[in-house]
Amino acid sequence: MQIINTINELRSALEKQTSVAFVPTMGNLHAGHIQLVEVAKRHAQCVVVSIFVNPLQFGVNEDLASYPRTLDADCKKLEAAGTSIVFAPKVEEMYPDFDGGNLNQTMTITPPPIANELCGASRPGHFSGVATVVMKLFNIVQPTVAVFGKKDFQQLFIIEQL
Ligand code: PAF
């Protein structure tokens, strides 16, 4: 299993792959994530899992700073599950205008109005942040298939629209 931190390195690693299954995550992996890897393996020989705690989907009063970051333990689980590549970029790799404090990401995806209901009603901007990072990740990985859990059903619905 390769652990890759930059977009350039990932693109080189994927150059010769004809099909890629992609599982985006924010790390702190549990059995549900590993099941997603199992599903991904049925669709392609090369399975890429991203681990990126996306600041753009956290509100001002949410738990970005204390969100668990367990990269080493996550990589062990992913290796045992048969993952080909872990993509674990830094914030500045995903948001090049990040200045150490602000992301300065002015271009974002605006999801459909469902994003402002249910969970979105109390988390303004959350699903825009999710859609924006998922779009970026799709552009970077260019997967044949992507696998998402159904637990976050509103997220799944919005990503299907994306
Ligand atoms: O469900 C998650 O873990 C995140 O919202 C996702 C899809 C990886 C985007 O950051």
Outline of the structure:
The chain is of the alpha/beta class and 162 residues long. Helices cover 38% and strands 12% of the residues. It has one domain: HUPs (Rossmann fold, 3-Layer(aba) Sandwich), CATH 3.40.50.
Q: Look at the structure and name the CATH superfamily.
A: HUPs
If you compute it from the alpha carbons, what radius of gyration comes out, rounded to the nearest whole angstrom? 15 Å
What do the pLDDT scores average to? 97
**Helix share, percent:** 25-40%
Query: What is the CATH domain class?
Result: Alpha Beta
- For the termini, the CA-CA separation is 29 Å
**Broad structural category:** alpha/beta
What binds here, in terms of ligands, is: pantoate
Q: How many extended strands?
A: 5
Overview of the structural elements:
It is a single chain. Strand 2, helix 2 (31-43) and strand 3 (46-51) form a beta-alpha-beta unit. The protein is of the alpha/beta class and 162 residues long. The protein starts with a strand and ends with a helix. Strands 1-4-3-2-5 form a 5-stranded parallel sheet, with helices on both faces. The chain is built from 6 helices and 5 strands; from the N terminus they run βαβαβαβααβα. Helices cover 38% and strands 12% of the residues. It has one domain (2-161): 3-Layer(aba) Sandwich (Rossmann fold). The model has no long low-confidence stretch (mean pLDDT 97). Residues 24-26, 54, 57, 130, 133-134, 152, 155 line the site of pantoate.
